[in-house]
Amino acid sequence: MSVLPYPPLHTEAKFVVLSDWDGTITDRDSNDFVVDNLGFGYEKRRAMNLEVLQEKITFRDSFREMLQSVHHPFEDCKKLLQQNIKLDPGFKEFYEWCKANNVPVIIVSSGMEPNIRAVLSTLLSPEEALKIEIIANDVKFTDPAHTGETWEIVYRHPESGFGHDKSKAILPYRDLPSKPTLFFCGDGVSDMSAAKHADCLFTKLMANGDSDLMAYCKRQGIPHVPFTDFKQVLERVKQVVEGKPVAEVLKEAGN
């Protein structure tokens, strides 16, 4: 059960794109960036990521521990992200094409919505940043004045080992009378819960060729299409919208 609301389903859409935010739409993971620079640092953070990938600990518990190591006001964290996080070079073109062709784009993130909208407001227009649908976690200010001097993450699904079970953003579309073709884009351990439920899964490769999500998909035998920027996603989504079968796209990607 979600403790946070969901946006209405796009019941008339023939195609729907759901995408992870950090490291997928953005050039780097904003939560990792905060932990690496203001928390306990890269080495411990990366070791915990690998433990989640190996299913030794849950993403929910590891992420909470990472954020608890950040002893800085929330506004400082938000400003750091606005100054340092950039969009994937192909995302604006992809987003504009989807808007023009009635393909909803929904951000599905294990991060916190206020941070995502803050970064978007610097990379798109503030107006556009408010329009984009975001399904994410939230934040609670815990200092007496509620100004964010101290804060903690509010998980959408606190009972889930993912904290935010991204499959719950996808599965309702499967129950619609006219089920749309579902695309999902992701890169990391927080996307594992969504990986099996998209019709066409895109796995983002980092500059060094790594992708925790792709490693998981290979291990689980989940068909996927690797990509390095959203121009490649746009090309494939266009093909499917114009009538190419998803099975053919997956086959061409080596599945």
Largest sheet: 7 strands, mixed
CATH superfamily: HAD superfamily/HAD-like
What characteristic shape results from the CA principal axes? globular
| Backbone CA Rg | 18 Å
Q: What structural category arises from helix and sheet content?
A: alpha/beta
Within the largest sheet, what's the order of strands? 4-3-2-1-5-6-7
Unreliable stretches (pLDDT < 50, length at least 5) are none
What report would you give on this structure?
There is one protein chain. The chain has 255 residues and is an alpha/beta fold. It has one domain (15-252): 3-Layer(aba) Sandwich (Rossmann fold), CATH 3.40.50.1000. Helix content is 41%, strand content 16%. It contains 11 helices and 7 strands. Strands 4-3-2-1-5-6-7 form a 7-stranded mixed sheet, sandwiched between helices. The radius of gyration is 18 Å and the shape is globular. It starts with 14 loop residues before the first strand and ends with a helix. The relative contact order is 0.17. The mean pLDDT is 94. Keywords: Hydrolase. It comes from Naematelia encephala. GO terms for molecular function: phosphatase activity. This is HAD-like domain-containing protein.
Summarize the structure.
By secondary structure, this protein is of the alpha/beta class.
